[in-house]
Write a structure and sequence with these properties.
about 290 residues, alpha/beta, Rossmann fold, 7-stranded parallel sheet, 10 helices, SDR, 3-oxoacyl-[acyl-carrier-protein] reductase, KR_dom
Length: about 290
């Protein structure tokens, strides 16, 4: 439903080739979830999408579906924590775009939770590297394609979380990292906006149905570069307490439900689109009203 509404908006505004027609977009962590939906919606709006994910098989599936649907996508799989991969990603994206890159969505990441007095240095360093250092390095590597004066739109969208805006028990590392994303976004907007017209915004998600919010008992995990498995999700008992009160679900969300990956991705598309052409340096909360 959400994607249909976005398509209808585009049609009403007379973008026959799509709101992102002719633009080249890198979407990190787009092998599944919000990233995959972002890639799909971008392609539907005419963008040439670079599907970036550590899971090459999933990334290939996303790109294949986009191409089979009439869109344009390539896969550049690899580990964002590898500096050489970041260089390769930018190089191949520029080649795909005939020397141009217009959009970066810094979406890749995961959680590695622990209470403050038990969290390890490895947990701390990995999450900050993934959510702060990696977006910075990707933006820095892509700088030559954004610091240009050709009157074409340029957008950098960094993904944050309500954990970064409000903190969250058991997520000191993730909360700090996602708060840091906001500062990075504002700095990009102030440095690259005046001369080059680059827009940079943050999209902060609340409770979205992804593997990070599914029950931990379902067994989803990621593997760190040195082979350690990190369990993802929320313990079922903890999730049940957050959802149920006097028989009512999601009482802390005014819309009384979690968001879908498509709804989350639709917000990213909106920020990247001409509809938000005068929105810069902002943090857009996509939460169903939670924490307002």
């Amino acid at each position: 439903m959400a994607s249909k509404r976005v398509d209808q908006i585009a049609n009403h505004l007379n973008y026959p080739k799509g709101m992102l027609a002719g633009q080249v977009a890198i979407v990190t962590g787009s092998g599944q979830g919000i990233g995959a939906e972002t890639a799909r919606l971008f392609a539907n709006e005419g963008a040439k999408v670079v599907v970036s994910d550590i899971d090459g098989k999933k990334a290939e599936e996303v790109a294949k579906k986009i191409n089979e649907s009439g869109g344009s996508a390539i896969t550049v799989a690899g580990d964002m924590l590898d500096d050489k991969y970041i260089e390769e990603l930018v190089k191949k994206a520029a080649e795909f775009g005939n020397g141009k890159i217009h959009i970066i969505v810094n979406n890749a990441g995961y959680t590695w939770d622990g209470v403050i007095h038990k969290i390890t240095d490895k947990q701390w360093d990995t999450i900050l590297a993934l959510h702060n250092t990696v977006p910075f390095k990707l933006v820095r590597a892509a700088a030559p394609y954004f610091r240009v004066r050709d009157n074409e739109p340029r957008n950098i969208i960094n993904i944050s979380s309500t954990s970064g805006l409000h903190g969250n028990a058991g997520q000191a590392n993730y909360a700090l990292a996602k708060a840091g994303v906001v500062g990075l976004t504002k700095t990009i907007a102030k440095e690259w906006g005046p001369q080059f017209g680059v827009r940079a915004n943050t999209v902060a998600f609340g409770y979205i149905l992804t593997r990070l919010t599914a029950a931990k008992e379902e067994g989803a995990f990621v593997t760190t570069p040195d082979g350690e498995k990190v369990a993802l999700g929320i313990p079922r008992a903890q999730g049940a307490k957050a959802k149920a009160k006097e028989g009512e679900q999601h009482v802390d969300i005014p819309l009384r439900r979690p968001g879908t990956a498509t709804e989350a991705a639709s917000a990213v598309l909106a920020v990247a689109s001409p509809l938000f052409s005068y929105v810069n340096g902002q943090t857009i909360s996509v939460t169903g009203g939670r924490n307002m």
